[in-house]
């Protein structure tokens, strides 16, 4: 441990690898703000598993006591021990589903004699059972579920406006408040499924929906989804855990609607002056509104002063971040806005050229840039008598910027 | 609740009895904490811990399954021998518990117990119970049983614990669908160790594993990829399914790149392996490896590596544009690698060479020092690949001559000047300017300069005669470096005896430079493919390189292709990347080879003294070619033969060269460790006329005892045999002593007896004492001898710097021993090269207050590391040696080894 501290944490230089081997012992680390979570091994373990576990550990801790901070860790010392005891045994991860863990590790402390025998065996069967993420006997007066389709658009564009790489990584997050052990089936406008159905049913529907269908490059699912069924029939069926969870993640690269276009223009006027002009164009239906738009224009390190003129929103030069930050609260579709700035430079004798970091952008739009649509989510509960119609369902689409950069 | 803080302090073991009393509480939480306390302190007070046993046994029968499991779990973690005895009964019960939660905990407990006392586990028959658990109805129990069995099996490579058969595999596959993500990882890792009987079975397993590729946990995905990659070996390539599988592998791998950076890093390291093994999987996915501005540096470097591997004619334009962008970034390492990557692209994709060169020229114009230097190094390689094509750029290069301060860049530049001496008008002036500071240059530059000037002389003999003489005398008379001297002599002799021959040798056509660099050897690659997802794949090293020696590490290998075995004869279907077309990839590029030769003093210990570079390369390539042919010719294709080549190459090249060298100048060879001259071990008087003298040698990783038996008696001697007493390092004869013919009077035989270090161990006094018994038809004779410790220094004894530092700090100061080595006339460089010959590696070198400090590491055959600091004061023939080692008793002998090596 000391060696790790000396060699990694206090090393002057930037971390060169998340795995370090010191004296035949390997250290894995993950950093959360200023807390280092490290795992140690002397053997050839599954490295991916170790990192996944460290992340899960973070998730579990966050679920129990909120933010991972020095304070919180000190206060919840015992709880962390208890949790570790349960999720890890002799280095083997056991069960890291917060839902299941919460049934028997609680913050109030449980008295073992108060539990009936059935309850106990129920806990254990649940922890080890096939459906380790949901306990039985959940009841809600109102059966509700919320679906959030969250997408982040990643873009890398050349100064000439050529798309170098673009992809959408999306997540479908579900919040379920359903009674019993409901069986759910989720459908979206996945190209493969629709084409399959298109062949089976009438041509007309195939054509109609075919236009809007999207090609998903790859997707991964929460462990509640029956993967073998997805592989054979491409249907997504599952028994959801109670509360919020991430149903699936997916990635698409084709036919992405890029909500914004950034057109930069940088001109060096002499050695001590730079002129920057940036135009952003919104590229979606005029009826929709984008929010929280922020454009970050990097400036050289030797900037002495900046003058900005912008048509809309507010722009400020932040010396500490070496960037001009331009914020716009709202912007409708098919609009255009512009900012121009003059940057005064201090003359330097530094030969090194300015690296010209890319212009980055943040925004939020109320649609899914990949074009993904939820077609249905059916709920079946064989034992309790409520049907699909009784469930109140909400669907929301949010498109956010991931790493949305334009080189200049 | 409040006693929690006690865990963090160490003095609290005094409270042991009181805490143990609390064990009987009904409060689950308190119980857990008490158990935790026990785990930490039982070791310090084993007698007290016995008090707790009763409670444990009682808790194991508690009606609450959680408590039963807790008790079993805790008992397994208490590493006190006495407790383990009591543990067996409850454990047996728990393994058959009705509650799955208890069973799964008990399964892991068996693994814990095995770690403490393996014999006990076997005697108690827990292993069989564990095997039964594989067929348990509860998936989590199965998963844990599998995990426990795998761990146990790993420490017992011989025992056939996990004898997987189609039935058990089927059960595992069923459980795979139902258990938690972690369980899935255990099962997949275990599946990867299984070798299916035929391609049909492999295919069906693959089919059932593929759905795992869309799991959200990337460890599951990687483990699934591992299984698929491994079993794909068995599928024949013309199968439709093979193609589908390849297609299915790409998207999940790409998705891994959207995970957190640390996972990305693991994934990238693995993709790097996969791309080398099966480039077709990701050939269309170039774009995802483009570097993002705020990727952590380790991710950036890995992405760059993969980009180069994927570069092809189709995507080269894109790649180049990206690389150019990267070359303007700030991180020095990254920029260097990007520049180097441009050069690699030029060499790999011929059509792009032109563009690459112009890009490099643009970069040189930036005048950023490290960019320029790196660019020159790669341009040298481009010149090698495409001779006489891009000379126009030489002028630009020459402009930057003065800014070069790194040896590699200087050497590259000198090479270029020498090579194109006839087109550079002022080549002699340029080289002369380098010559002024000849002695301050590094060896690499000196050697290159020598060669370049000789080339220049051969091209323009009239003007440069003076220059050549100057450099030759510098190299031969004023230099301490044997390599430089020897090369100087060779040129001298060549030039003075037969200038035509010299021309042929020095200016000979150079063999082609190969396209791929840094490839991992095929066998290692195959082994690493079996370790996808694990640490080995992250380090790109086999596990034995970083796992503590005690545990036997099983070498895994990919299964041979069994299906339709007739067709495997043809090269297309030959397994594991063995097709002959790929063979040359194993050879390092000529540039590297050249570098190796230039660096001989730092290179592998087996290589002989250098000749003129060009001829060496030719020889080497020829030798290699021959070796390869004969290896490929063998009918056994199970293990790809190529990996054996580099090792042989070194040896054969070394010996071939040294033979050659013996002819020309008569200087002895340097190959292998230093050999002590033979000494008489057993005088004839004591052994009824048999005289034995001998010595120990170490060559290319094997130790042998060279014996000379002389019959000084009057009768014939036959039936020789030899045996060693147990000794400190387990030295034992690896083969019986073979004296083929009877030894007649006054006859002498020389025998080399191979030794190994797997014999039984007993500490001797002195440590390196070896007692030997030799038998012949007359009698049995005993003698003892001291073996020099350096025969035990193994070839992989080089520690990396970081580790050296950490270990040095880690070893307590009282283990440090200091010695004086007197009257040694060598300088630091010569010392380190000589020590390297005997597997003492210089990890780092520092110059403090006009003293050279050499930091060295060496490893003994039994895995003991010895770290050394050697202080050399120029002009003073006494060195100070400080040794640090966890086993301080070896220091004295290591010092003796140093002394023998350095003084002879």
From TrEMBL, chain A:
* Positions of the MHD domain: 142-407
Q: Which GO terms describe its cellular component?
A: AP-2 adaptor complex; synapse
Where does the record place it?
A: Cell membrane; Membrane, Coated pit
Question: InterPro entries, from UniProt?
Answer: Adaptor_comp_med_subunit, AP2_Mu_C_sf, AP2_Mu_N, Clathrin_mu, Clathrin_mu_CS, Longin-like_dom_sf, MHD, Mu2_C
Residues noted as binding a 1,2-diacyl-sn-glycero-3-phospho-(1D-myo-inositol-3,4,5-trisphosphate) in the record, renumbered to the chain: 314, 316, 318, 327, 329
Q: CDD domains given for it?
A: AP-2_Mu2_Cterm, AP2_Mu_N
Q: Which top-level group of life is the source organism from?
A: Eukaryota
Keywords of the record:
Cell membrane, Coated pit, Endocytosis, Lipid-binding, Membrane, Protein transport, Transport
Name a GO molecular-function annotation. Answer: lipid binding
Q: Which Pfam families match?
A: Adap_comp_sub
Membrane-related topology note? Peripheral membrane protein
| Predominant location | membrane
Q: A GO BP term, please? A: vesicle-mediated transport in synapse
The UniProt function text for this chain reads: Component of the adaptor protein complex 2 (AP-2). Adaptor protein complexes function in protein transport via transport vesicles in different membrane traffic pathways. Adaptor protein complexes are vesicle coat components and appear to be involved in cargo selection and vesicle formation. AP-2 is involved in clathrin-dependent endocytosis in which cargo proteins are incorporated into vesicles surrounded by clathrin (clathrin-coated vesicles, CCVs) which are destined for fusion with the early endosome.
Q: Which PANTHER family match?
A: AP COMPLEX SUBUNIT MU
* Family label: Belongs to the adaptor complexes medium subunit family.
Question: How is this protein named in the record?
Answer: AP-2 complex subunit mu
Automatic annotation (TrEMBL), chain B:
Organism the protein comes from: Ailuropoda melanoleuca
Q: What does the record say about its membrane topology?
A: Peripheral membrane protein
Any Pfam family? Alpha_adaptinC2
Domain Beta-adaptin appendage C-terminal subdomain residue range list:
793-903
Where is this chain compositionally biased, Low complexity type? Answer: 559-576
Q: Which gene encodes it?
A: AP1B1
Q: Where does the source fall among the domains of life?
A: Eukaryota
InterPro entries the UniProt entry points to: AP_beta, ARM-like, ARM-type_fold, Armadillo, B-adaptin_app_sub_C, Clathrin/coatomer_adapt-like_N, Clathrin_a/b/g-adaptin_app_Ig, Clathrin_app_Ig-like_sf
* Chief place of localization: membrane
Q: What is this protein called?
A: Adaptor related protein complex 1 subunit beta 1
Acetylation among keywords: yes
Family classification: Belongs to the adaptor complexes large subunit family.
Q: Name one GO cellular component term.
A: cytoplasmic vesicle
Q: Which residues form the signal peptide?
A: none
An example GO biological process term is: vesicle-mediated transport
Cell compartments where the protein resides: Endomembrane system
Q: Start and end of every Clathrin adaptor alpha/beta/gamma-adaptin appendage Ig-like subdomain domain? A: 674-784
């Amino acid at each position: 441990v000391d060696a790790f501290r000396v060699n990694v944490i206090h090393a002057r230089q930037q971390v060169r690898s998340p795995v370090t081997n010191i004296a035949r012992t390997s250290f894995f680390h993950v950093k959360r703000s200023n807390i280092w979570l490290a795992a140690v091994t002397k053997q050839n373990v599954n490295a991916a598993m170790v990192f996944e576990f460290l992340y899960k550990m973070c998730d579990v801790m966050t679920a129990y006591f909120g933010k991972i901070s020095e304070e919180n860790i000190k206060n919840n010392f015992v709880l962390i021990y208890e949790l570790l005891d349960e999720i890890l045994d002799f280095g083997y991860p056991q069960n890291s589903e917060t839902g299941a863990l919460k049934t028997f590790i609680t913050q109030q402390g449980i008295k073992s004699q108060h539990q009936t025998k059935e309850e106990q065996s129920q806990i254990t069967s649940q922890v080890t059972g096939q459906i380790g993420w949901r306990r039985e006997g959940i009841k809600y007066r109102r059966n509700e579920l919320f679906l959030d389709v969250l997408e982040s658009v990643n873009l890398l564009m050349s100064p000439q406006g050529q798309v170098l790489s673009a992809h959408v990584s999306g997540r479908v997050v579900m919040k379920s408040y359903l009674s019993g052990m409901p069986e759910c089936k989720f459908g979206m406008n996945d190209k493969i499924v629709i084409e399959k159905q298109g062949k089976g049913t009438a041509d007309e529907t195939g054509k109609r929906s075919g236009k809007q269908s999207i090609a998903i490059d790859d997707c991964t699912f929460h462990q509640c989804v029956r993967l073998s069924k997805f592989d054979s029939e491409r249907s997504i069926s599952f028994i959801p855990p109670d509360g919020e969870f991430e149903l699936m993640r997916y990635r698409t690269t084709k036919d992405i609607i890029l909500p914004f276009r950034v057109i930069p223009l940088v001109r060096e006027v002499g050695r001590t002056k730079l002129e920057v002009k940036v135009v952003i164009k919104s590229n979606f239906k005029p009826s929709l509104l984008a929010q929280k738009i922020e454009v970050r224009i990097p400036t050289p390190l030797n900037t002495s002063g900046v003058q900005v003129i912008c048509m809309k929103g507010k722009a400020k030069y932040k010396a500490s971040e070496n960037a001009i930050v331009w914020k716009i609260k709202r912007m409708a579709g098919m609009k255009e806005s512009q900012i121009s700035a003059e940057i005064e430079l201090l003359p330097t004798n530094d030969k090194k050229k300015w690296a010209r970091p890319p212009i980055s952008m943040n925004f939020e739009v109320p649609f899914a840039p990949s074009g993904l649509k939820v077609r249905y989510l059916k709920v079946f509960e064989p034992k309790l008598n409520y049907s699909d119609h009784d469930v109140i369902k909400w669907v929301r689409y949010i498109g956010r910027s991931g790493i949305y950069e334009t080189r200049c | 609740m409040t006693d929690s803080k006690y865990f963090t302090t160490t003095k609290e073991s005094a409270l042991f009895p009181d805490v143990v009393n609390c064990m009987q509480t009904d409060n689950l939480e308190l119980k857990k904490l008490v158990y935790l306390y026990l785990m930490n302190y039982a070791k310090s007070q084993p007698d007290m811990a016995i008090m707790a046993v009763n409670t444990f046994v009682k808790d194991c029968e508690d009606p609450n399954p959680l408590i039963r499991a807790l008790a079993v779990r805790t008992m397994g973690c208490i590493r006190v021998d006495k407790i383990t005895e009591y543990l067996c009964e409850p454990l047996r019960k728990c393994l058959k518990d009705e509650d799955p939660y208890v069973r799964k905990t008990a399964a892991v407990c068996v693994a814990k117990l095995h770690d403490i006392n393996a014999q006990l586990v076997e005697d108690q028959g827990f292993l069989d119970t564990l095997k039964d658990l594989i067929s348990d109805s509860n998936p989590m129990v199965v998963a844990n049983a599998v995990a426990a069995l795998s761990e146990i099996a790993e420490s017992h490579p011989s025992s056939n614990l996990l004898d997987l058969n189609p039935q058990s595999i089927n059960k595992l596959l069923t459980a795979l669908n139902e258990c938690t993500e972690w369980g899935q990882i255990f099962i997949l890792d275990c599946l990867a160790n299984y070798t299916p009987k035929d391609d049909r079975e492999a295919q069906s397993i693959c089919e059932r594993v593929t759905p795992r590729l869309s799991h959200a946990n990337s460890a599951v995905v990687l483990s699934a990829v591992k299984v698929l990659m491994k079993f794909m070996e068995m599928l024949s390539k013309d199968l439709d399914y093979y193609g589908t599988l390849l297609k299915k592998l790409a998207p999940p791998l790409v998705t891994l790149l959207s995970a957190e950076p640390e996972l990305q890093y693991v994934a990238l390291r693995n993709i790097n392996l996969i791309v080398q093994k099966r480039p077709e999987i990701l050939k269309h996915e170039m774009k995802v490896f483009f570097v993002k501005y705020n990727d952590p540096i380790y991710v950036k470097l890995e992405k760059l590596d993969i980009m180069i591997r994927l570069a092809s004619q189709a995507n080269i334009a894109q790649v180049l544009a990206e690389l150019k962008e990267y070359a303007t970034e700030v991180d020095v390492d990254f920029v260097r690698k990007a520049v180097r990557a441009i050069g690699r692209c030029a060499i790999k994709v011929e059509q792009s060479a032109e563009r690459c060169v112009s890009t490099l020229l643009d970069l040189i114009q930036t005048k950023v020092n490290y960019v320029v230097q790196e660019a020159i190094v790669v341009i040298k390689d481009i010149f090698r690949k495409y001779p006489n094509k891009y000379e126009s750029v030489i002028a630009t290069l020459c402009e930057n001559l003065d800014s070069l301060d790194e040896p590699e860049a200087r050497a590259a530049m000198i090479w270029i000047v020498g090579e194109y001496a006839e087109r550079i008008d002022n080549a002699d002036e340029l080289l002369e300017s380098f010559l002024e500071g000849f002695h301050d240059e590094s060896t690499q530059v000196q050697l290159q300069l020598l060669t370049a000037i000789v080339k220049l002389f051969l091209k323009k003999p009239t003007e440069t005669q003076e220059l050549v003489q100057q450099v030759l005398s510098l190299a031969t008379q004023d230099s301490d470096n044997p390599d430089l001297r020897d090369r100087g002599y060779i040129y001298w002799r060549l030039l003075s005896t037969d200038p035509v021959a010299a021309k042929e040798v020095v200016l000979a056509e150079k063999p082609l430079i190969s396209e791929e660099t840094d490839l991992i050897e095929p066998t290692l690659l195959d082994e690493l493919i079996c370790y996808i997802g694990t640490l080995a794949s992250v380090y790109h090293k086999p596990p034995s390189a970083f796992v503590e020696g005690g545990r036997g590490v099983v070498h895994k290998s990919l299964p041979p292709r069994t299906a339709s075995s007739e067709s495997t004869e043809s090269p297309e279907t030959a397994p594991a990347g063995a097709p002959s077309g790929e063979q040359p990839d194993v050879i390092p590029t000529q540039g590297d080879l050249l570098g190796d030769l230039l660096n001989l003093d730092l290179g592998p210990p087996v290589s002989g003294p250098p000749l003129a570079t060009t001829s060496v390369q030719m020889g080497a390539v020829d030798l290699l070619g021959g070796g390869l042919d004969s290896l490929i010719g063998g009918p056994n294709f199970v293990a790809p033969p190529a990996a054996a080549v580099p090792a042989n190459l070194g040896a054969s090249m070394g010996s071939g060269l040294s033979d050659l060298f013996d002819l020309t100048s008569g200087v002895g060879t340097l190959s292998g460790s230093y050999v002590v001259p033979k000494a008489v071990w057993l005088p004839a008087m004591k052994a009824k006329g048999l005289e034995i003298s001998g010595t120990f040698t170490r060559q290319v990783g094997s130790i042998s005892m060279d014996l000379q038996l002389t019959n000084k008696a009057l009768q014939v001697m036959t039936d020789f045999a030899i045996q060693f007493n147990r000794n400190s390092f387990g030295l034992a004869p690896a083969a019986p002593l073979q004296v083929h013919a009877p030894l007649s009077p006054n006859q002498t035989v020389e025998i080399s007896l191979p030794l190994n270090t797997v014999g039984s161990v007993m500490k001797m006094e002195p440590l390196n004492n070896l007692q030997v018994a030799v038998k012949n038809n007359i009698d049995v004779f005993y003698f003892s001898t001291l073996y020099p410790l350096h025969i035990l220094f193994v070839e992989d004894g080089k520690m990396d710097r970081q580790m050296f530092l950490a270990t040095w700090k880690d070893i307590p100061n009282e283990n440090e021993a200091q010695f004086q080595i007197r009257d040694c006339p060598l300088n630091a460089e010569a010392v380190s090269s000589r020590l390297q010959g005997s597997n003492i590696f210089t990890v780092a070198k520092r110059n403090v207050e006009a003293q050279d400090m050499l930091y060295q590491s060496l490893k003994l055959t039994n895995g003991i590391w010895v770290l050394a600091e050697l202080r050399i004061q120029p002009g003073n023939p006494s060195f100070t040696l400080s040794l640090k080692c966890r086993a301080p008793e070896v220091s004295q002998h290591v010092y003796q080894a140093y002394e023998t090596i350095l003084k002879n």
